[in-house]
Amino acid sequence: MCGMTAAQSHGGRSHTGRLLVATPMLTDPNFARAVVLLLDHDVEGALGVVLNRPTPVEVGSVLDGWGRLVGQPAVVFQGGPVALDSALGLAVAPGEGTGEPIGWRRVHGAIGLVDLEAPPEVLAGELGALRIFAGYAGWSPGQLEAEIESGAWYLVDCEPGDISSPEPERLWRSVLRRQRGPLALLATYPDDPTLN
Questions:
Q1: CA pair distance 27, 14, nearest whole angstrom
Q2: Contacts of 90 (CB under 8 A, 6+ apart)
Q3: Is residue 151 included in any domain, yes or no?
Q4: Could you list the residue range(s) of the whole structural domain that residue 61 is in?
Q5: What is the DSSP string of 129-181?
Q6: Could you tell me the CATH number of the domain that includes residue 63?
Q7: 130 has which bridge partners?
Q8: Contacts 24+ apart (CB under 8 A), 185-188
């Protein structure tokens, strides 16, 4: 389970490991219809990656050895508008063993960050659902909370398969569809409501 339930020491609730799903009213081109996995959320702000923005760039063309380890589509994803010249790897480590694979650091649940400086062959048999992101999304202290409060984002639990969806362009609708109540109905919201 990817959802976070523990309260942080500062009295607020950490949303690390949860998903931000853009509301239909969020029109910023960086985040319209985005699904963001929060990798870190605390009093210092928040950091996450957009899970549903594949680029045409193949992983193998920019990161030697990693292309054969990523899932389909085997392309780099645009993780957000910040630091687009940097790469970040996310993968699931199957099993709940006590030790973590070398070159992988747990973020939440079975999801962790991959050290892309490590030799890919060291991690080849250890990880599943590897995905590479260029850039990330970041929020300063209180900024994300204000955006959620203003109605820009829905905050929902993630499922392990979200980070490696084989059809990332459908992720926004599928995450909403599995929610209870009115959120599930938003999955049918038209891309352009003016054409309705």
A1: 26
A2: 37, 39, 49, 107, 111, 112, 113, 114, 130, 131, 133, 163
A3: yes
A4: 18-179
A5: EEEEEEEEEEE-TTHHHHHHHTTSEEEEE--GGGGG-S-GGGHHHHHHHTSST
A6: 3.40.1740.10
A7: 70
A8: 186/23, 186/24
Angle in degrees, CA 49, 160, 94, rounded to 5 = 115
CA gap 106, 178 in Å, rounded: 26
CA 162 to chain CA centroid, Å, is 8
Q: In whole angstroms, give the CA distance from residue 100 to residue 94.
A: 10
Question: Structure pTM?
Answer: 0.87
Q: Which pairs count as long-range contacts for 191-194, CB under 8 Å and 24+ apart, including other chains?
A: 191/33, 193/24
Closest CA to 179 of 40, 21, 25: 21
Mind listing the pLDDT tens digit for each residue in 103-159?
888 888 888 999 999 889 888 888 888 999 999 999 999 999 999 999 999 999 988
